[in-house]
Design goal:
It contains four helices and four strands; from the N terminus they run H-H-E-H-E-E-H-E. The protein is an alpha+beta fold. It has one domain: Alpha-Beta Plaits (2-Layer Sandwich).
């Protein structure tokens, strides 16, 4: 059920990816956070998470890695926050994330 909802969200997000990519110019000093991800079962999961996060307002760059079970997010702290991103991932995507220790 969660996987089906995730795939539906990814499909909807893919349609607007071009516009999102064009609007992802940095607007100020960016912050970066790296999360450990639980729930990746394939490369498509990582790509889908990248697409969904790329749609979020304030997110300027996303790199998810299926083999490493990680996602690194660069964002504008004036628009969104680390807590908002964590909550979005945990409540919307079907994955569970926790912050990695050390520099992002």
């Amino acid at each position: 059920m969660i996987r089906r909802r995730f795939l539906k969200n990814v499909g909807a997000a893919a349609g607007t990816l071009g516009a999102v990519t064009a609007s992802m110019a940095e607007t100020g000093p960016a912050q970066s956070v790296r999360f450990q991800v639980k729930g990746f079962t394939c490369v498509a999961c990582a790509v889908g998470l990248e697409v969904m996060l790329g749609e979020r307002k304030g997110v300027t760059k996303v790199k998810a890695s299926y083999p490493d079970n990680r996602v690194q997010i660069v964002f504008d702290p004036h628009v969104t926050s680390e807590d908002e991103l964590r909550t979005y991932i945990n409540e919307t995507t079907g994955f569970t994330v926790s912050k990695e220790q050390g520099p992002a």
